[in-house]
C-alpha cells in the first residue's frame, strides 16, 4: 500500500508540473533573490585586459558593502545605490592595469559579478542574452562589481580610506544611505534581488577566507574575486616559524577549498498522508500566528531527501515517505545558503514535538492555507515597500504565512492551490 501511495503522490505532483505551476514564484511582488542572471563571464575572470576595460567603463556599477551595511537608495521603491567608475577611480587605481595578474590595493578586494543585458533603443525590453551575438564588445554592456570597504586598518592616505570617505560624502549629498543588509535586502526588484544574492555571498566568502584553511597562511584574491590563493611567504619573511609549517594541500593537485561555497538547506511542505492538510510549525521568535514549513541544513553524507526526512522527524515527529523537489532559492540575508524547496508526504500524521526548535507544530486545512495565502497577497498589495510584513489573521485558528517572496510561501501556495488530495491517496 505504501508503494502505491507513493506512486500516486508522485503522479499527482507531476500532473501539477505539467500544468505549468511547478517551481514558479507566484505573487512574489519583489525580488526573491533569484530569477535573473547576469552573464557572469566565468571564462573571462583571468582576462586582465578585459577586466581593466570593464572596471573603467562608464557603464560599470559598483555595489558598496561596509560591515553589515549596504549602499541603497534613501527613497522608495528601494534600489541598490551604486558608485560609478569615475567615482571609484577618483579614490583607487584600476587594479587590472597595475599588473597581470592584477594587484588589489590594501583593504580593497574587487569582485566582478557580470555584465547585464543592453536595453534596446526606443524599447524597455532588454536583449535576451548578454551579449546576444558578439556584435558588441563586452565592455559596451553594463557591468556589476562589488567591493567591501570594511577593513578599518587602512592608512589615512590609502585608496581604501579615500573610498570610505567618498561613500560618506555620497551618503551626505545624494539620495542614498548605508542600510543594514537585513533591511535593505527586501523590497528590491527581481533583478537587483538576484544581483544582491550573488554580491552578498561573494563578499561574505572573501571576508571569511583571508587565511588558508589548509595551512593558515594569508590568502590573496584572484580570478576577479572568485578564487583565493594560498601565498608563499615572501623572501626574507620575518616569520621564524614559516619553515616549520607543512606544505599546503591547497597549492598542489586537485582541491576545491579556495573557491566560493554554497551551503544547501532543505525546506519542506509536508502534506498529511491523505493529502488534505499541510504540516507547519512556528518558532517562539516568529510574529503571532506565523507558521511556516520545516527547514534545516543538509548534513554531510545526506541526500536532499534524507535531509527532509530527518529534519521533519526531528522537529515534528512525523515520518515522511515521498519527497519531491519543487524549486530553490538563495536565501538572503544569510550568505551562501541555497534553500531546496520540496513537497513531501507524511506516512503517519501523529505530531510529536521532542526538541525545542519549534514552539508549536500543527496540521492546517486547505481552506486555512488558502486564506493565509490570500492574506499575504493582500498585505503585499497594500504595502509593497514592506514585503516581509504580513497582516495577522483575525481568527485565532487561522495562521499567517511568510511573505510571498519566500520559498516557504511558494510551497504553501503551490499546495493550497493544487489538487494533491484525493480519496484514492
Ligand atoms: Zn595554504
UniProtKB/TrEMBL annotation:
Domain Nudix hydrolase: 260-386
Enzyme class (EC, first level): hydrolase
SUPFAM superfamilies documented for this protein: Nudix
Ranges annotated as spanning the membrane: none
Residue segments, region Disordered: 381-400
Gene3D superfamilies found in the cross-reference section: 3.90.79.20, Nucleoside Triphosphate Pyrophosphohydrolase
The reaction(s) this protein catalyses: a 5'-end NAD(+)-phospho-ribonucleoside in mRNA + H2O = a 5'-end phospho-adenosine-phospho-ribonucleoside in mRNA + beta-nicotinamide D-ribonucleotide + 2 H(+)
Alphabetized UniProt keyword annotations: Hydrolase, Magnesium, Metal-binding, NAD
InterPro entries recorded: NAD-cap_RNA_hydrolase_NudC (IPR050241), NudC-like_C (IPR049734), Nudix_hydrolase (IPR020476), NUDIX_hydrolase-like_dom_sf (IPR015797), NUDIX_hydrolase_CS (IPR020084), NUDIX_hydrolase_dom (IPR000086), Znr_NADH_PPase (IPR015376)
Superkingdom classification of source: Eukaryota
UniProt cofactor(s): Zn(2+); Mg(2+)
A cellular component annotation (GO) from this entry: cytosol
Pfam families xrefs: NUDIX, Zn_ribbon_NUD
Gene Ontology annotations of biological process type: NAD+ catabolic process; NADP+ catabolic process
Record GO terms (molecular function): metal ion binding; NADH pyrophosphatase activity
Enzyme Commission code: 3.6.1.22
Compositionally biased spans, kind Polar residues: 381-392
Family statement drawn from the similarity comment of this UniProt entry: Belongs to the Nudix hydrolase family. NudC subfamily.
Descriptive protein name: NAD(+) diphosphatase
Gene source species: Dimargaris verticillata
Lineage, top ranks: Eukaryota, Fungi, Fungi incertae sedis, Zoopagomycota, Kickxellomycotina
